Amino acid sequence: MIDRKLLAFTFVASALLLLPALCVEEPAPQPVLAGAPAVATPLVGQEPVGEEDGPTWDLERLRKAGVEAVDLQGAHPLEPDRYHPDGDREVRPAMGGRVIQHIPSQPGNLNRAIENSALTTWMLYEMHAALVERDFETWVYEPVVASAYDMEDTVILEGGRSPGNGNILFGKVTEAGDSYVVESGSSRNEIETTRVPKGDVESVEFGTVFTFHLRDGVKWHDGHAFDAHDAYFSWEIYGNPAVDCDKVRAQFKEIVNAEVLDDRTIRYFYRQQYMDAVSTFGTNFFLMPRHLYDLHDPDHPRHDAAATEEQRAAEINDNPHNTDFVGLGPYRLKEWKRDDYIEAVRFEDFFWKDPAKAGYMDVLRWKYISNDDTAFEGLINGEVDIFGRIKTEDYFGEKTQTDVFNKDFYKAYTYTATYQYTGWNIHRTKLKDKRVRQALAHSFDSQGWVDSKYFGLAWPITGPTFFMTPNYDHSIPVRAYDADIAEELLAEAGWYDRDGNGIVDKDGEDLVIEILIPQGNKASESTVQKIQEGFSRVGVRVEMQPLEWASFLERIYNRDFDGCNLATVLQGGVETDPKLGWHSEEGAFDKRSSNHSGLRDEKVDAIVDEIRRTIDPADRAPLWRKLQAELYDLQPYLFMNSPPRKFAFNKKLRGVKLYVFAPGFLLRDMYYEEGTPGTRSLPAEFSRSGSDR
Amino acid sequence: MLTYTLRRLLWMVPTLLGITILIFCVIRLTPGDPAALMVSDVSTGGVGDASGVEAAMEKFRERWGLDRPLHEQYLVWLWNFLRLDFGDEMMRPGVSITSVLWQRLGVTIPLTLVSVLLSYLLALPLGILSAVKQGTLVDKVSTGFLFILYSLPTFWAGLMLILVFGASGFDWLPIMGLHDKDAAQMPTGEYLWDMFLHALLPVATLTYGGLAYLSRQMRVGMLEIVRQDFIRTARAKGLPEKVVVFKHALRNSLIPVITVFAQILPVLIGGSVIVESVFSIPGMGLYAYEGLLKRDYNVVMATTTFSALLTMAGFLLSDILYALVDPRISYD
Q1: What is the average pLDDT score of chain B?
Q2: Beta-bridge mates of residue A141
Q3: B135 touches A at CB < 8 Å
C-alpha cells in the first residue's frame, strides 16, 4: 500500500531540491557582439583591393566583427588584450609564472609525423620549432630554425626528370624569347647563367628548389646540436612505407630529393610547383632528432648501421620520445602526467632570448578535462587560466555574467578558419541533381539561424574559403530563404507532391533525407532541427540520426549517408589544398577521403589543379573565388556559417593576442604584470611596456 | 565450505570465458570503426582534410590484427590474457593497458572502498532507526529524504555539489581531480589533507545513492524480522529492546543487505564513470567509457573483463557471507 502522505511529501521535497536547476533562466538575448570592445576600432589601412574581379569585403560586417585591419593577406586583429576590460592600461611584462590551458582531449603523442591531431600541433607551437613558421600577425612564413632560405625554379629538360633527380637545371628562371635563362638564385648554387632553348625543355616548375641556411647554435632539448642531417632525416622518413605517417606522406612525397650541402645547409627539390610548397616546410615538417630516432646514426644509443627499413620505421613508430618529447622550441617537456596534464618549462638554450619570441612564462601546462561543464567550473575555481570551449548561449548568457566570473575572468572571441556545413552525398540518386541541392539551400534560413542561434556572431558563408581572406568572395550572396524558388527548383528536377502526403516524390519515392549528426552535439542537433523546419516548408522530410563519433565516421567514410552535419577546420590555417575536398580523384564511391560529398566535376577539377600550381597567394585569390562560385552553383554542401572561437581568460594574463589561426592564441605571447608574485622583472635588454611589443 | 568455494572458483572459469566471448562479439558488432576514428581529429570535432586515409586505416587494421578472422582475433586476445597481457592501447601505441589499469584502479578502488564503507556505516543505523521507529515522524522524514537522494541523478548531484561548494558557491572545497595543481610541492601532511578535501565531493556523490538504497534494504529486512515469532518471544521474555534489536533482529536482517553487496561493487565501479567525468578524476570508469567511445577494443576488453571478474567475486563473497551470518545456510 502506498503511503499517500509520504508520496506527497517526497514529491514536494524533490521539487524543492530540483528548483534551483529548473529556475536557471534561458540566456537573455544580448546585443550582438556583446563581448567586443565598447568602441569599435575603425578599419585602418587598405580598402578592399580594387581589381575588377577582386574581393568585395563587407566592411560594415567586418567592423562589427571587430576586425581592425584588412589587407591582401586578409584581416586580423593584432592589438594585445583587446577584450581585456583593463586592456587600455599600459602594463609592464614580467618574466616567469605559469599559465594553464584547458584541453578537452589528449594527444596520443607529440610526434607530428605520425600524430596529426590539432592538439599536438598547438602544443608544438610552443615546444618545437620548424624551418619556417607562419607569423600569426602578418601571415607570412618567416625563417625560424633556418636563418634564411632561397627559393629557385627547376627546368626539366626534354626526356623528363631522371631517377636520382637528373636531367634538370635549377636556379632563377626567366623567359627570354625562345629560351629560358637560368641563373643562380642562391649563394650555394654556383652556376653560370645558362640559356636553354624552349625546345629542349619539357617543363619549368617555379618555386620548387629550396635551400635552407640553418641557424647557428640551435640545440635539441637534450643539448645535442641540431644540424642539416636532422633536417634530411626528417624528410627521408616519408619515403619509408613502414613509418606510420600515411596521412601526411603524400605531401612530402612531392619533395623528390634532398641534399645536405654541409652541416648548416640543406636543399630540397619539389617534383612540381605547388601552392603549399613553402608551408610544407612549416609546422607540418616535423624536425626529428636523428640521434634519438635513426638507428643508422652513430650517436643513437642503439646504433645499428645494418638496420633494415622496417627496423628503422619501428624505431620511429614506437619511439619513447614520441611522448617523452625532445624538440627545438622555447619550451621543453617537463612532465606528461597521463590523463591529467602535460607540462612544459622554459628551455634555457633556445636560440632566441627575447621573451617576445621565446615566451615570458616559465611554465606552460595543458590540463586535460573531458567534461566541458567541469572545465568551466575548473576555470572559476582557478584550476585553469584559459577555457576555449564556451558555448554561444553561455557566452551571451548568465554563466559568463556572474560576479564570480567577472571578478577574475573575461571573455573574448576570434574567427579561425572553421566553418559548419551539411554535406550531401552526391552518390545518392535523390541528391545527384544540383537543382535539388540548390533547392535545399533555398529552404534553409541561414541568416535567421545565425541571428537566433549565434546572436549574430557567426558569419553566414557561401563557400569553403575563409571569409576573412581575399579568397572569399563576399559578393556571392547567401541563397535566399524562399520556398517558392525551392519548390520551383525541385519541380524542375522532377520532385513534387504527387500523392498528396505533403512530401515531394519522384518515381514513387518520397524525398526523405537522413542527416547524420555527432551524438551529444547540441549545436548540430539544433541546426538540423532548423533544417527540418525549413525543409518541411517545401515538402522535404528530414530524419535526424545522432551517431556516436566512431559510428558517424564509419558511415561517412563508407559513403553510407544522405547528409551529415559537420564542422571543418582548414588545416593550413587560412587555406588548405583543395584537391582533398573537391577533386574528382578523391570523390569516387570507394574512395575514403575528405571529398565525402563525392563531388566529381571537370570544371572544379580544372580550378583545383590551377590553384594547386599557383604559388603566389595573391594570384591564387581570384582562383579561390572562382572555385567558391562553382561550388555555390553545385552545392555539394549546404555551407552554413563560420562561427568564432570563444574563450575565457584569466584577467591576470596580459599580452593576449587573438589570431585567425587555431587555437586562436599563442601561450608564449602571454605574461603577468610586473610585480605579480612568483614572477621577476624582464632582463634589462628586453625591458619594455606591453604596448611596445 | 572450502569445497564449495573451490567449486565456485572453478565455475568462474567457463563463466568468464563466456563473458569475454560475448563482450568480444558485441564490441566488434557495434557500429564504429576504430581505424576511421584514428584518422579523424577528435580534438577539433571535424573530419579534417587528409590524404592517405585508406593507407593509414589499412595499416592500423594490420597492426592490431583487425584484418584477421574474428575467431583468430579472439584467440590471440585470449592467449595474451592468459599471460596477463592486455596489450597496448590502440589509440595510444606504446601505452600499456596493464600499467594504466593499475594506475586507474589506484584511484578508483580507494574512492569506491571509502564510499562502500560509508554507505554501510550510515545506511545500517539509518535503516534500523527507520524500522524501529516505523510510522513515526523520524521514519517518515528519513524515508522521504532517502527516497529523494535515491532519485537524484548522479551527474546532476555532482554538478550541484560543484556549484554549491566550489568557487561559484561557497568556495569551500576543491572541485576537480584528487590533487591541487601544486600538490607535487606540498609536504606530506598538507598533501594528504589536500587529497582528503579533494575526495570529499566525489565520495559524497558516489555514496548518496548507495546509502539510500542500502538503508531501505536494511529497513525492509529489519521490519520483516521484527514481525517474526522469535522476536515476539524475545520481547515476551522481557529482554531489553536494545538486546532484541541488536542481538536478535539485526543479525537476521543483515542477510538481504549482504545480497546487495554483490551488486553494489560493480555498480560502484560503473557509477564512477559519471562521477569521474564530472570531477575529472582519471579513474577506471572513465577509462572504460573513453575506451568504448574510441572503440579501443583492447581497452574495452581489459576493463570489461576486469568488471566481470569483480562482479563474480562480489557474488562469491556474498554467498560466503551468507553462510557466516546465517547458521541455517550451509554449503557443505
Answers
A1: 85
A2: A134
A3: no
3-state SS record for A614-639: CCCHHHHHHHHHHHHHHHHHHCCEEE
Task: Tell me phi and psi for residue A680, to 5 degrees.
Answer: -140, 170
Of the partner residues B159, B167, B286, the one whose CB lies closest to the CB of residue A380: B167
Residue of chain B with shortest Cα separation from A117: B41
The pLDDT of residue B75 is: 94
Tell me if A10 and B42 make a contact (CB, 8 A cut-off).
no
ipTM of the complex: 0.81
Residue B319 to chain A, least CA–CA distance (Å): 32
Name chain B contacts of A569, Cβ cutoff 8 Å. 41, 44, 46, 48
Residue A559: C-alpha distances to residues A41, A193, A430, A521, B241 (Å):
47, 54, 14, 21, 74
pLDDT in tens, A240-292: 999 999 888 888 888 999 999 999 999 999 999 999 999 999 988 999 999 99
What is the per-residue pLDDT for A59?
A: 56
Q: Do B44 and A118 touch (CB under 8 A)?
A: yes
Distance CA(A429)–CA(A665), nearest Å, equals: 44
Provide the 8-state DSSP code for A324: S
- pLDDT tens-digit readout, B147-169: 888 889 988 999 999 999 998 88
A503, containing H or E segment: none
Is a pLDDT exceeding 70 seen at residue A688? Answer: no
Cβ–Cβ below 8 Å for B52 and A248: yes
Name which of B47, B198, B290 to mutate to probe chain A: the one with the most chain A Cβ atoms within 10 A of its Cβ: B47
- The values of phi and psi at residue A117, to 5°, are -70, 155
Q: What is the pLDDT of residues B51-103, one digit of tens each?
A: 577 788 888 899 899 999 999 999 999 999 998 888 899 888 788 898 898 88
Fill in the DSSP letter of residue B246.
Answer: I
Q: What is the pTM of this model?
A: 0.85
Which residues of chain A lie closer than 8 angstroms to B34, CB-CB?
A: 550
B105 Cβ neighbours under 8 A, 6+ residues apart: B284
Contact B43/A117, CB-based, under 8 Å? Answer: yes
The per-residue pLDDT for range B226-280, each reduced to its tens digit, is 888 888 888 888 888 888 888 888 877 877 777 777 666 666 665 578 888 889 8
Say if B166 is an interface residue toward chain A (CB within 8 Å): yes
Peptide bond into A77 cis (omega under 30): no
Which chain A residues contact residue B143 at CB under 8 A?
6
CA distance A338 to B290: 14
Q: Considering only alpha carbons, which residue of chain A is nearest residue B156? A: A21
- Residue A642 DSSP SS3: strand
Range name among A84-93, A525-534, B307-316 with the lowest pLDDT average: B307-316
CB contact under 8 A, B47 and A380: no
Strands A74-75 vs A70-71: parallel, antiparallel or unpaired = antiparallel
User: Which chain A residue's Cα is nearest to B47?
Assistant: A568
Nearest-neighbour CA in chain A from B109: distance (Å): 17
Which grid coordinates are listed for A181?
635563362
CA distance A563 to A638: 10
